[in-house]
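call fold target=D-inositol 3-phosphate glycosyltransferase
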Amino acid sequence: MAADTFAPDVNGAAKFAERLAAGLVSRGHEVQVVAPSTSRKFGTWTEMHEGQPMVVHRLHSWRWYPHDWLRFALPWIIRRESRHILDSFRPDVVHFQSHINMGRGVTIEAEKRGLRIIGTNHVMPENMVKFSLVPVGLQDRVIKAAWRAARRTFGRAEAVTTPTRSAAEFLEKYTGLTGVHAISCGIDAENYTPNFEPRSENRILFVGRVTGEKQIDVLLQAAARLDPALKAQIEIVGGGDQKRNLEHLADTLGIRANVTFTGYVTDEELRAAYSRSTLFAMPSIAELQSIATMEAMASGLPIVAANAMALPHLVHNDENGYLFRPGDAQDLADKITRVLSLPAADLERFKRESLKMIEAHDIRRTLNTFECLYRGEPVTDTVTNGASTRSTD
């Protein structure tokens, strides 16, 4: 498994790769991971992920300073190390998690050896450019070049996947690929604890990277528009380059006392944050699936989310929450108010609907599907609204 970002990195792609690798190991498969080192220390050793041991090859990497944590390995190092790893490990399948440096280098070497290649896309070049040093006037050209590069790398794969049908259609549109499979990242709902006890306060939770595309500023602006009688508290879980700017915005809006920035937390602390919350808010406009939203649903939370990208697959109006117009702080405030003002019976109905909808995203189903892809068997793509499927070969 080749990944440009892997645990302990905190993001959806890294979490998916970790859960997939650990799930496969728990089923008796031998899995090795190649990823950039997370520090100046690099090499090969056994790591524990999700309670499972696996060999991880950490390649010599450098910090990408426009981003707050991202590290990358140089292409010629990836090619050299890939040759060594593939020749010594001799895998049956190579599964790459993005078309960037790691995916490109590993697939070139895997193709030479006639190995079965599976690719999964978690990346939108439009978001990557925001963390680059490319002048604004050249960004459109760079984005187009990035999609061409994606076409070349994913073109080496026997099967290509994304987390949702909308993300699959997006990838097909910009690369010209066809037959992209929509396979949920999946979560283990048993790891989360729904709490149906009455809340002593209205706590609105956001979980994710504290970066521009998440549009947390819209959530803070919405919070400033809420009726003080709701006594809403905002909890922002995650770290990122926008934390100071958002803290300043909260001060400017006069709501700093009602906003908590917890930074990065442990898995146990994260589950506790879900359990004590009343509502989960996801204002992001760039979610190819949103594992955090799925975790909130598995915790029995109603959701208010932007009507953008994959979020409409997870949030159904007046069933488990509401969608709001992306970037519209007033509409977000109105939808939050609507949920926080629900009678107890209706609030419980929303919570139970979130639990029902998340059943379609069970990690076991995801593992079964990828095992079929690895063996070259036909799979059934789940359109991740929990309602319909389509068969593909």
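return ok
The radius of gyration is 21 Å. The CA atoms of residues 378 and 393 lie 5 Å apart.
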